[in-house]
Amino acid sequence: MKPVEIAVSFINYPALKRWETKGGIGNELLQRILGSESPLCRILPDASLRGVYLGSEFCEFLLPTPEILQRGIKLAELSGAGFALATPLASDGVIDQLKRLLPLLPAEAELIVNDWGVASMARRQQPALKLVAGRLLCKMIKDPRLNSSVWTEMYPHGISGDSFGRMLEMLHIERLELDVPPYATPQVFADLQLPTAAHAPFGYVSKGRLCKIGSLSLPTTQKFSSGRECRRECLTYVAETQRSGNATDLETHQRGNTLFYRHTQAMSEAVVAAFEQGWLQRLVLPGD
Amino acid sequence: MHIVSPISRVAEVEPLAAAGANEFYCGILPQEWVGTFKTANANRRIFGNLTTYDDLEHATRLAHESQCFMSLVLNGQQYTQDQIKLLVDVARRFRDCGGDSLIVSDIGLLLAISEALPGFRIHVSSVASCRNGEAARFYQGLGARRVILPRDVTLAEVARLVAESPEIEFEVFVLNDGCVFEEGVCHTIHLPGKMGGPICLDKYTSAYHRLDGRELGADEKCRLEGNDADYQKWLWYRFSNGFSVTPEGLPYGPCGLCALSSLHAAGVKAVKIAGREGATERKLASVRMVKQVLDRVTAGLACSDVAQFARDLRPSEEHCKTGYMCYYPEVILTGEESRQAGKIDKDQVDAALR
């Protein structure tokens, strides 16, 4: 098996700061994220930390400030890893902010894009940046309530299709980031046209622009709408979510505007097998 | 500004046109799709589709006879290459029978159609989640003429988009059928009711925890419970006030009627009524409501008078006051609320980040 690349993603500065004070990210964090029972631990001995991600794929309020961005870049250096800025679906206001952040990125940095407009702007304004198609662009069915693999077979993804591939080529996108869908088999990751990372141990189901927890501090009439500022309550609280009486449901939680599921052992085994086949190159773990 | 109405049956075209619709959109579930792929996911709707090409041609002809425009929806979030190939054939048949435009969300399908049917009008679906000018111009470069903005954009964002991309048409939501999540990045299936239905309608419960491992304090629990109660109320509005209508049959639920003056002034090309799967009566009532308000906008009635007329239509003053029934809730804020909206204590934000 080829050496596996590991990347650790951070959305907020406090978590990132912990590792900054320790002089970089070590295996201790990776083990803690995965837990000792995860099949993915089997690939860790052959893995090396290659990426530190900062930012959110899901929320426009979690773009780092220029100051925090610099700290993230520093942590990547300390850890001997490359740096990637993760970006969300964007309004024009977010595009404005990104135009100020992108010139601060190191020449070899990656930009994880989840919006074709962000990709187009970055390609034009900063052609040297390495663009990565994020999970929001690499669409696949990930409903945590499905009780059989028949459902996911009925809705195959189109990421390996020629048309999607040509679009990636037009924008000089160099890498893909995927979730591991429910009932995943290693073949989910076969035939992809670019080097690919899988996120673990959580997949994302759905995201809103409106945010329940982000409305916690707002007056009642201003809750659950766009255009408000946010106190980033998602950095303080997480909600375990569940339906009663559905034994086959995946374990889910909501953080901020996004619903996530935890991988099963079988899904993790599929990821290990995909690495063994050489269909995956990178594993992305949440650092916070 | 055009009123864009859904249809699911040929017989709906003429009455909806008479009620004031300028454009229609419809889906089709071709037999060859079902036969080849064994699913009904050609356009994200299992129901509410035309079933034959004859119906599609007939509906298009009737629309044209009423000086209306007909769009075909091919708005799955994702398609395989084989599905794209088949859908390009469907698009070609639609063009050949006189269809006016295609509503597309999958980027691969959009590229394939623009190459196979150059010049044929493409509208980027709201499912594509396009809400910035860079994306709009990127889609335009691929052949799109119009962008249908997703739900939950603000009026200020709409105005900026239109102003900065004057060569692109923009369409926005005006009535019916809210989504809780962003539909373009919601990777779920609207399951059969016995399996839970749409995930946002499913009966999930939440149990909060602090990420720092500390126990929730009594005050925190109380605030979280209060917020959840508000959220449940918002969901009721988001789902058409519990899927209710007035005694006269006018639909409640997500509504942008008060914002029509602003949208018109911004230069928005068209407003969309959602609900392909809805009953004909609901579609008719929706078109009439939008038409009545829009007539007052184009006649030059003051914004405040237009908004009051819109609120009196159902009437829905009490519902409107909550802000939870609005696609563009900023229109109902008072002057002071407008100043306060979005203004929060920067120190608290900084504290959360420390």
Q: Give the name of the CATH architecture of chain B.
A: Alpha-Beta Barrel
SS field, number of helical segments of chain A: 8
- Report low-confidence residues of chain B grouped into runs of 5 or more: 338-354
Order of helices and strands of chain A: EHHEHEHEHEHHEEEEEEHE
How many discrete domains of chain B? 1
Question: Describe the biggest sheet of chain B?
Answer: 8 strands, parallel, barrel
- Structural shape of chain A: globular
Number of strands of chain B: 10
Strand order of the largest sheet of chain A: 1-2-3-4-5-6-7-12
Q: Into which percentage range does the β-strand content of chain A fall?
A: 15-25%
Distance between the termini of chain B: 48 Å
- Report the structural category of chain A: alpha/beta
What's the CATH first level of chain B?
Answer: Alpha Beta
In order across it, which strands form the biggest sheet of chain B? 1-2-4-5-6-7-8-10
User: What name does the CATH topology of chain B carry?
Assistant: TIM Barrel
Overall average residue pLDDT of chain B: 92
Would you give the CATH topology of chain A? TIM Barrel
Structural class of chain B: alpha/beta
The pair of chains with the biggest contact is: A-B, 84 and 86 residues
Description:
The complex is a heterodimer of chains A (288) and B (354). Chain A is α/β, with parallel strands linked by helices and 288 residues long. Chain A has a single domain (4-202, 263-286), classed as TIM Barrel (Alpha-Beta Barrel). Chain A has eight helices and twelve strands. In chain A, the strands form two sheets. In chain A, strands 1-2-3-4-5-6-7-12 form an eight-stranded parallel beta barrel, surrounded by five helices. A four-stranded antiparallel beta sheet of chain A has the order 8-11-10-9, with no helix packed on it. In chain A, helix 1 (13-21) runs parallel beside helix 3 (66-78). The longest helix of chain A is centred in the first third of the chain and has 13 residues, at 66-78. With 354 residues, chain B is an alpha/beta fold. Chain B is built from 15 helices and ten strands. Classes of the chains: A alpha/beta (288), B alpha/beta (354).
